Amino acid sequence: MKNRFLPLVCSLLVFAGLAAHAQQKPNIVLIYADDLGYGDLSCYGATKVKTPNIDRVATEGLRFTNAHATSATCTPSRYSLLTGQYAWRKTGTGIAPGDAALLIPTNRVTLPGMLQRAGYQTGVVGKWHLGLGPKGGPDWNGDIKPGPLEIGFNYSFLLPATGDRVPCVYVENHRIVGLNPSDPVQVSYKDPIGTEPTGKANPELLKMMYSHGHDQTIINGVSRIGYMSGGKSARWVDEEMADVLTGKVNQFIETNQKKSFFVYFSTHDIHVPRMPHSRFVGKSGMGPRGDAILQLDYCVGEVMKTLDRLGLKDQTMVIISSDNGPVVDDGYQDEAVAKLGGHTPAGPLRGGKYSAFDAGTRVPFIVRWPGKVTVGTSDALLSQVDLLASLAVLTGQKVGAGEATDSFNTLNALLGKDPKGRDYVIEHALNNTLSIIKGNWKYIEPGQGPAVQKNTNTELGNNPQPQLYNLKTDLGETKNVAGQNPHVVAELTSLLKTVKEGK
């Protein structure tokens, strides 16, 4: 009689074990800021601007000092983050125009797709900038696909590209939000389209003047890159964008609170055009860029409040980072340079967005998961390309052969159990110059191109000669010591060559 119940008991024990394992899988909230520099947060040393909500997450979690985006620009960083593959391995993954086709192949394993396999509900809210639609670009007035839903997300609410590029509409899942079919959207990145005024021809209509580029179709008093007509009922209002996006993130969390969920909150802040809500205007004393930092911090706080209110804080891993380093004047006359007031967006680092120097890719990176992640500061070497492999291990998934080929499991470093992290990190700059960091050494391969990007006044790090820096003694990369250390140059040149030839 006893034995007849044994299979049932065993089954119940197995089920209980699986249920317990499932409960160990955290919700994951990835907050990915735009153009946020290493020195832009008070928890990273900023004194002219305060970010109490992000600081609180850092105080309750682990703040990394040596974490890197894969690229110094947005589209390739995002591609690498979601695919686990360096974007420079695939052609067409530079800064994408607003009408680009989907850049991520629908048959490629992705971070959200992997988490879907683990039973997660997956959502993306905010800036996309990875293309939409088939080859030739999307049908803006019909079903806009393939897109996020075809590469692993259950829900999406997007800016199709960036805030400074048309079309200036939100796309929810496969459709433009609020589009009137009698007023179809038309987009061109080649020739003027429709009769909309442009910044170049009608500067008197602008509420924020452009400084370089950004002089085409005017939407909401701001001229953009590209031409757009139609879709008047669907156009976003820049000043309301942060609230709209944060609301959608919180709605997604509310809807999926009883399930395992992953939400990728890709903020627009602090990218241009910097048009924060009136609640933040003038509050930083640093002009729109500083005010946008305050707005970003507020948005993080609102998401944290939602997790607290729903009792999800202890079951949720929160990751906060940025797609690349900072840029001050990136195309609009918003007084960002004049009102810095001693603030250093890159902190002690050299360069910025677009640059091969470390400020291009060394970014804030904070992880919080109460009771699971060590509290404090870590110098472990991290790359965002590793999130896919690391979170796969965390959620009991396996990454197959040929999938996420550049993504390594650095979960122990993310949790604070490993103080070392990666053996090396690869960085990618605007002109496809690659760099490698290993130990205290950083090597920048010889590259052509200007030393300084004139429009943004950013040091790009281009040099026809090899560059080698000892980051332990020279974090600001001021002294090229390649000539004094030929053996180190040879070692890192060889390692970089091996990585390049990998797949």
UniProtKB/TrEMBL annotation:
Pfam families: Sulfatase (PF00884)
Keyword Signal attributed: yes
Keyword Protein biosynthesis carried by entry: no
Ranges of residues in domain Sulfatase N-terminal: 26-396
InterPro entries in the cross-refs: Alkaline_phosphatase_core_sf, GAG_Ulvan_Degrading_Sulfatases, Sulfatase_CS, Sulfatase_N
Molecular function GO labels: hydrolase activity
Range of residues in the leader sequence: 1-22
Record key words, sorted: Hydrolase, Signal
Family the UniProt entry places it in: Belongs to the sulfatase family.
Protein name: Arylsulfatase
Originating species: Larkinella humicola
Species lineage: Bacteria, Pseudomonadati, Bacteroidota, Cytophagia, Cytophagales
